[in-house]
């Protein structure tokens, strides 16, 4: 099993629930400007990111919620490496609509929102 990225949630912005209802999750490394922090899940990187981006089919785990990556935008992994920032769209798309996004299989919004707690782990890894 390869771990591409491992991070811990430090804070959840006040506007995150509304975005989750729309199937979108924005991650930003701790220390993001206040206007970005409002719409983001702030996190503290524990491991990675690896030099190679995760492949389609890799597992995205947020607390007890798991999804599979269905697309990786051409700039997404560079943004993760440079700023700890990425937009995750839980729409199951096979092609990323924007170059800086990851697409993942759909998940239940309420369950995902419940998993977004300070200290929860976010991991992107190959399937076991």
TrEMBL record:
Gene3D superfamilies found in the cross-reference section: Phosphotransferase system, glucitol/sorbitol-specific IIA component
A Gene Ontology BP annotation from the UniProt entry: phosphoenolpyruvate-dependent sugar phosphotransferase system
Entry-linked SUPFAM superfamilies: PTSIIA/GutA-like
InterPro entries per record: PTS_IIA_glucitol/sorbitol-sp, PTS_IIA_glucitol/sorbitol_sf
Phosphohistidine: residues bearing it: 43
GO annotations of cellular component type: cytoplasm
Alphabetized GO MF terms: kinase activity; protein-N(PI)-phosphohistidine-sugar phosphotransferase activity
Residues forming coiled coils: none
Pfam families: PTSIIA_gutA
Domain of life, source organism: Bacteria
Name listed for the protein in its UniProt record: PTS system, glucitol/sorbitol-specific IIA component
